């Protein structure tokens, strides 16, 4: 290997994860001193990966086998995965406190220790490792290091491997459109609009299919707000395409596939998918909704990555997949991928949820790890997004908002009205978002859509998290003060939040007072809103305060998600399921008639009337 090659390989990096002390503290980014990596490569060390070509049958994910050896093995040896294969080893100085060592211009996708599946490696110096790769629009190479994570030395570099078509359309994700009978399909590819036309072939199952065009978006480093997103964590995002499938018949099953028409007239297609169209607003049918926050992603091969603290996300994902026939729509209410500026992880997340998002609408809300960045208009002036400042969330997933930068919108789904708020923008009285929230709550016809649900990322209602107890607010400061009169006036049934990584349910409550002593079967008028924390879908758990809160009915320091099932206009079932086994650990029912919604409750009716 020539001297130029040695210079090229002078400093490679991998990530070692630090657990968060608290979910809103410093990011658990890796601290590998790659700038201290030394050369030369060991003459007898080697690393080889096979097969050289992946996805020959159209697969978007495949396992590869690494064979490696070192003449001076150590338990600290590790292997990094890099894509593109010709990654930069140049040093990049830190721009802010969210950029941790290694100060390198290219971040690895993930890494694993050489002795992970080879307990005798430190004695024999030989090992075999199996890793899963997903199609990410470029080729891959693998680097082997000695010296541990704090003093890495480049030992060997593998051959390059690639998917047969790195540009192929991948990871479709459905979302409701702005109309109830419209479904959108968003996907990622390596084809720009000058190379190919993006389109969807779709139609009713067993019927005629048509082609619908798709729009294309992308972004550059200049679109992002800071490091690591626009520096060490940057990776070309490819192109994001969205097509609008319109005038759908309620509850009908449709088939579709995503693809591209190349300039030479040939087509590139994905596999076939299908979905069920939404019910008509007010339609009586079985309607089932899964809701959770803060899931993130996790590597199925056990390898490590940046922000490596969402160990339960695979459990949640698998439980949702197993129960997918009994789920009609999903709401992921903030803290989506936890990429935090390491852009390759959005590909990893969309690949992980593809079995879900390709089959049912996958609606998202904005969280602090998607949006927050100083000086960019976010309500909280922190660096939790790692410089993404909302760009990735706004482009990678479709939301039916009038302005994607303002992440609030309504969803009508059969007997449900969902009002999705954006806690990373000001929600207080007098703001644009406050007006949206009131309009969303006020404009629903409760005779047709009796189940009114408020969704947001940060806890605006009630939580026993120690983080809020220490502030003596038991929620985001100024949350309830601004919004509880709207929840009460418009008789919101349930408000569900993420952000706090556990599960909790309150009594029906208004102004800190429980309006019912019932815990499992609510009949007639609720007189208050039930508040739910459902932020335990994957990220490290949040601790409860030891203080006793009268309004808290059920707490669980574990990972899970919630599910709503509307049987008809009078009966709703709520369930909390653990991610570890999918079993129900908390539940309640609401049974009532339309007249119960009309009935006056405290602060839900005009204070004076003509009669008075």
From TrEMBL:
Domain Purple acid phosphatase N-terminal stretches: 171-276
Annotated keywords: Glycoprotein, Hydrolase, Secreted, Signal, Zinc
Cofactor: Fe cation; Zn(2+)
Primary localization: secreted
Residue ranges constituting the Calcineurin-like phosphoesterase domain according to the UniProt record: 288-503
Residues covered by the Purple acid phosphatase C-terminal domain: 528-587
Gene Ontology CC terms, in alphabetical order: extracellular region
Compartments where found: Secreted
Catalytic activity: a phosphate monoester + H2O = an alcohol + phosphate
EC code(s) of this entry: 3.1.3.2
SUPFAM superfamilies in the cross-refs: Metallo-dependent phosphatases (SSF56300), Purple acid phosphatase, N-terminal domain (SSF49363)
Signal peptide: 1-23
Annotated Purple acid phosphatase Fn3-like domain residues: 47-165
Subunit structure: Homodimer.
Family the UniProt entry places it in: Belongs to the metallophosphoesterase superfamily. Purple acid phosphatase family.
This protein's name: Purple acid phosphatase
């Amino acid at each position: 290997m020539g001297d130029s090659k040695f210079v090229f390989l002078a400093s490679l990096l991998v990530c070692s994860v630090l657990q968060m002390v608290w979910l809103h503290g410093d990011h658990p980014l890796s601290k590998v001193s790659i700038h201290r990596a030394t050369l030369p490569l060991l003459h007898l060390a080697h690393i080889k990966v096979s097969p050289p070509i992946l996805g020959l049958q159209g697969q978007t994910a495949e396992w590869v086998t690494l064979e490696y050896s070192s003449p001076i093995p150590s338990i600290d040896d590790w292997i990094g995965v890099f894509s593109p294969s010709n990654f930069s080893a140049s040093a990049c100085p830190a721009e802010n406190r969210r950029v941790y060592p290694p100060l390198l211009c290219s971040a690895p996708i993930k890494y694993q220790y050489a002795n992970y599946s080879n307990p005798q490696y430190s004695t024999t110096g030989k090992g075999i490792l199996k890793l899963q790769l997903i199609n990410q629009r470029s080729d891959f190479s693998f680097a082997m290091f000695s010296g541990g994570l704090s003093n890495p030395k480049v030992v060997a570099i593998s051959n390059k491997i690639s998917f047969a078509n790195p540009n192929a359309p991948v990871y479709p994700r459905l979302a409701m459109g702005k109309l109830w009978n419209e479904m959108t399909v968003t996907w990622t590819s390596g084809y720009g609009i000058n190379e190919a036309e993006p389109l969807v072939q779709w139609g009713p199952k067993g019927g005629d299919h048509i082609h619908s065009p798709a729009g294309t978006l992308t972004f550059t480093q200049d679109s992002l707000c800071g490091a690591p997103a626009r520096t060490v964590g940057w990776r070309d995002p490819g192109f994001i395409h969205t097509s609008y499938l319109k005038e759908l018949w309620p509850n009908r099953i449709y088939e579709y596939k995503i693809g591209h028409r190349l300039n030479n007239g040939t087509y590139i297609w994905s596999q076939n998918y299908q979905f069920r169209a939404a019910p008509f607003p007010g339609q009586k049918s079985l309607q089932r909704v899964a809701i959770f926050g803060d899931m993130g992603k996790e590597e199925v091969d056990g390898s490590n990555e940046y922000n490596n603290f969402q160990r339960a996300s695979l459990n949640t994902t698998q439980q949702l997949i197993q129960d997918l026939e009994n789920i009609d729509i999903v709401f992921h209410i903030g803290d989506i991928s936890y990429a935090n500026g390491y852009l390759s992880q959005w590909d990893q997340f969309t690949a992980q949820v593809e079995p879900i998002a390709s089959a049912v609408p996958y609606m998202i809300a904005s969280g602090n790890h998607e949006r927050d960045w100083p000086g960019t208009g976010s309500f909280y002036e922190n660096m939790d997004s790692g410089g993404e400042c909302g760009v990735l969330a706004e482009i990678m997933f479709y939301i039916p908002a009038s302005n994607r930068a303002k992440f609030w919108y309504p969803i009508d789904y059969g007997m449900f009205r969902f009002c999705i708020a954006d806690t990373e923008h000001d929600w207080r009285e007098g703001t644009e978002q406050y007006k949206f929230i009131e309009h969303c709550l006020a404009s629903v016809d409760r005779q047709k859509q009796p189940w009114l649900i408020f969704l947001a990322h940060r806890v605006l209602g009630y939580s026993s998290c120690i983080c809020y107890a220490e502030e003596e607010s038991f929620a985001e400061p100024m949350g309830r003060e601004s919004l509880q009169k709207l929840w009460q006036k418009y008789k919101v049934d349930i408000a569900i939040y993420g952000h706090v990584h556990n599960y909790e349910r309150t009594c029906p409550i208004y102004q800190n007072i429980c309006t019912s002593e019932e815990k499992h079967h609510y009949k007639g008028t609720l007189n208050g809103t039930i508040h739910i924390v459902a932020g335990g879908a994957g990220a490290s758990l949040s601790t409860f305060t030891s203080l006793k809160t009268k309004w808290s009915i059920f707490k669980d320091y574990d990972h899970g998600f919630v599910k709503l099932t509307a049987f008809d206009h009078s009966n709703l079932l709520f369930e909390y399921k653990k991610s570890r086994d999918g079993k129900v650990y908390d539940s309640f029912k609401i049974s009532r008639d339309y007249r119960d919604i009309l009935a006056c409750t405290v602060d839900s009716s005009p204070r004076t009337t003509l009669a008075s």
